[in-house]
Automatic annotation (TrEMBL):
Transmembrane segments annotated in the record for this chain: none
Gene Ontology terms, MF aspect: pyrophosphatase activity
Alphabetized Pfam families for the sequence: Ppx-GppA (PF02541)
Sequence ranges assigned to domain Ppx/GppA phosphatase N-terminal in this UniProt record: 41-312
Name of protein: Exopolyphosphatase
Top-level taxon of the source organism: Bacteria
């Protein structure tokens, strides 16, 4: 199906009952979800490190752009193969921060036939909340959905609907590039990650006093699902293995200690850790344990449903 054919629909057109698709151009990972009335048809993720170097240079790196566009070309093939009619494409922290974001938007549009939306942090939080809480009993609320991304972390609070959201500039790629230079990390580098995260979290507590009322904490995105997968020792290609697993504070601390004391080449072989995520998991897991320490999160309900699912649901 041509992206310019009358049947090809994007956000703003009437909802369709058949297949819909969402694409998330994240700072670390590019993801695709194709879903239908009976559930997922395709769920794919590829680490392209779109945001590599953005924190330092303020620009998207040409090689990272090329990797991302190559992955989006595969998405286009899958959309055509399945005859998808409604597509929503979003770009998050790296695109928000980059001065050359239009290069990504132009090339993505030429490849996919849909121009990505640059999601503000509050919209990113709203969609993550919608995806993560779908199907949960409201009596388990109020909820806080914590979305640790590559460049930012969102805190989304509510029960049946989102009530408050806050986005802060701490993410696995951002913290790794800013603070982690040694292999394995030096103690002072880890202290820097944790102390900066704690400073951000003091702001979060001040801005969102409602967090004191949270009954169920939910964690989404690659850092959280990876730490849970390492704790469980499951394979990286086992979809659903970590969904609604309750990650305790003690377990998260144990995984953190394991990951940060290993050199990169050893870290890659941890069951549950995708080798391409090994370089940034130190920064990400430091953020996770700082959140669990500072906000007294125990346990954290892991969800494999997140922003991507919220994007897809918005098309129905």
């Amino acid at each position: 199906m041509s992206p310019t054919s009358p049947a090809f629909r994007t956000r703003g057109y009437p909802p369709v009952a058949d297949l819909v698709a969402a694409v998330d151009c994240g700072t670390n990972t590019i993801r695709l979800l194709i879903s239908g009335p009976d559930g997922d048809v395709v769920r794919r993720q590829t680490i392209t490190r779109l945001g590599a170097g953005v924190d330092r240079t303020g620009r998207l790196d040409p090689a990272a752009l090329d990797r991302t566009i190559a992955e989006l070309a595969e998405h286009r093939r899958l959309l055509d193969e399945h005859g998808v009619e409604a597509v929503r494409v979003a770009a998050t922290s790296a695109a928000r921060s980059a001065t050359n974001r239009d290069e990504l938007l132009d090339r993505a549009e030429a490849t996919l036939g849909v121009r990505p939306e640059i999601l503000p942090g509050d919209e990113e939080g709203r969609l993550s909340f919608a995806g993560a809480t779908a199907g949960l009993d409201p009596s388990r609320g109020p909820f806080c959905v914590v979305d640790i991304g590559g460049g930012s972390t969102e805190f989304a609070y509510g029960t049946t609907e989102l009530e408050r959201v806050l986005s802060v500039e701490m993410g696995s790629v951002r913290f790794t590039e800013r603070f982690v230079e040694s292999d394995p990390p030096e103690p002072e580098e880890l202290v820097a990650c944790l102390s900066v995260a704690e400073a951000h979290l003091a702001d979060v507590q001040r801005e969102l006093p409602e967090l004191a009322d949270v009954r169920t904490w939910i964690g989404v995105a690659g850092t959280v699902t990876t730490v849970a997968a390492v704790e469980l020792g499951c394979g990286v290609d086992e979809p659903g293995a970590t969904h609604h697993f309750e990650l305790t504070h003690d377990a998260a601390e144990d995984v953190f200690r394991t990951l940060v004391t290993e050199p990169l080449e050893d870290r890659r072989f941890n069951p549950g850790l995708h080798p391409d995520r090994a370089e940034v998991i130190v920064g990400g897991s430091a953020i996770l344990v700082a959140i669990m320490r500072s906000l007294h999160v125990d346990p954290l309900l892991v969800s494999e449903r997140d922003l991507l699912d919220g994007l897809a649901a918005s098309l129905r």
